[in-house]
Protein 1
Amino acid sequence: MAKTVAIVIQEDPTKTHRPVEALRIALGLAAGSHNITVILLDEAVRLLSEETEDIVDGEVLEKFLPSLQHLAVSFLVQDSTKYPVDQNRFRVSYVPPDAICSFVGSVDRVLVF
């Protein structure tokens, strides 16, 4: 039975490899039968920005992004983010923090990075 899974990424991808690793995990889960939503908080939104040269493991990230796009993985981003995301390339919804909290409470599983 398919589960709804939220993957919350809150770490800064310019300081640690964990945000890119979290997207790799999201990609693996999305390739199966699970309904995946990735929540990007604070600096983690940079994972979907045009400029990835400062991101730890940015070359690995570039390999994952087309597959995340192809699988139409949903992303939730705080509506107050300062980083632009290409909404034509990714399924991104800008939502207030309370909507993110409600969403996290409604899914079957949550992974936090």
Protein 2
Amino acid sequence: MGAVIKAQNISTSYRTGFGLKEISFEIEEGSFVCITGPNGGGKSTLAKVLNGLVPLEGGSLEVCGLDVSDVHNLPEIRKNLGLVFQNPDNQIVSVIVEEDVAFGPCNLGLPLDEVKKRTARALEMVGMTEYAASAVSSLSGGQKQLVCLAGILAFRPKIMVLDEITSMIDPVERNKILQIIKGLVEEQGITVLLISHRFSECLAADRLLYIENGSLVADGNPRQVLSAALNEDEGRKSNA
């Protein structure tokens, strides 16, 4: 299996000053990679850069062999890379739960029977079947996150980028979502990039990227990366 994401010295910035500073990495097909680091460090920016929502100012980025900086490639890139935002209200497009989950498969032009099958299966996977006919506005924040995840599962992309998708979910549900992610990677060969602050989620991944102040400061075995980051943080406190 080869790399499905290739980033070489990618840089971007916002007017606020937050952005990415010459980050380079490759993501192998079928891997489970966690991305962590302090708030405001650039993790969510990276997620949006990967599917062209935030343009590059420097460097090169390929997703499934397609140049992200070429706007003509973006529709195909977004078929291959599904992104779940940190705030579910920024992603939900329909009033009813099952309609929202069905939105992606419908846009692929799939037959109605296939759309219904994918929608039902995705809702079952995240434990939201009983809410299929419910109004999205009646759901809790955590339930909305599960609906957004179901929407990406129904879409069935090759790569899933999940930005803090368990932030509003209780510990039992978080563990369930983690098991779903591992199953997607191990059984279906889907590549998953999970942005998270939770140690349990970081340690469950095959690899951990640590981003701070827009830079990739560590990349490797999750336990070793976290240990180094914690030791460095303790060193800063002792020197303060």
Protein 3
Amino acid sequence: MSEVAHKEEALEKLKTAKVIAVVGISPNPQRPSFFTTEKLLRKGKHKVYFVNPKYAGTEIMGIKVLPSLKEIPEKVDIVNVFRNPAHIEPIVSEAIEIGASVVWFQPGSENMEIVKKYKEKIEFIYNACIGIEAGYLE
């Protein structure tokens, strides 16, 4: 994975967020979705939900995995996406549907056509890694 620079505006969103949904979480510690989310959890600043239909009902890092964003029982501030860019449009649609504030595309999951299509409906963060930004949290 290429190194992604720290982004002040991304950090600000992370500082003010209370609830984060991680879409595409994997139980494999070698996967970016696992080790990046682990960094976020270590900070202990956010309520974190995991979404991945493939692992729904199981637990990863002690957190129950949900089948969809719609299963999250509270308002989501950041939908953090670890998915192939070809598969993100339904995630963005669901994020808008549940009233999430921001869709954060992890490096490698960005799809600029989707950003352009939905930028009037939801805010996007890309070219920033939530794990790197979490390192700047107090």
Protein 4
Amino acid sequence: MKIISFNVNGIRAIVQKSFIQDMQQLDADIICLQETKASAEQVKEALSELTNYEIYANESVKKGYSGTAIITKTTPIAVSYDMNIEEHDQEGRVICAEYPDFYLVTVYTPNSGSELLRLDYRKQWDADFLNYLKELEAKKPVLVCGDLNVAHQDIDLARPKANYNKSAGYMQSEIDGIQAYIQTGLKDSFRHFHPNEVKYSWWSYRGGARQKNVGWRIDYFLISESFMSNVKDAFILNDIMGSDHCPVGIQL
């Protein structure tokens, strides 16, 4: 089984590019999307050419903002949306699909913002989301994927010194947030298989960052420790264009 996660930065924009062909070629069993920037109906319409998938989408109350989707060849046992915490459930950031052997959660973690105005909110989000994952994990293993909007270590961004405790995505409290996921038994699958590889999943649109590979690894698959033996590989697909992110994935 191949599972892909991709922050598309607008589903209606990316389907005008090579997205449909790219996904058909990848032929993943499940594709998780973040930042769809569309209503559930608009997501289904945009993805109508992917005929062999079922589509589950979550939308933000604010139009054209945030949003997530899971598209899957196998019908899940159940699908749920959000965390049941009103403060966090306004932006369509979480979907959970239950399969026989695991829960698959896709998440678009709130960005602290260029002025760091949402940093405190983000800290609360990280704590509450971890609790949510642990409640699921009490029942069966969890695979959580998506744009976590944080680089975990220096190896995960091109300019760690310049950004540490100055930029959203590399503030100490955000690093503590992802560290808490990992310390409580959710393994960073890419680092498990590629401990020393420098590979990024997001690049700024400014200053030719992607061409120069001045990037950040902020998209992840975190896997319950008890399930890691079922994961064969984790990968980052730098050659797939269309967004400021690229897809990341795992092979089970």
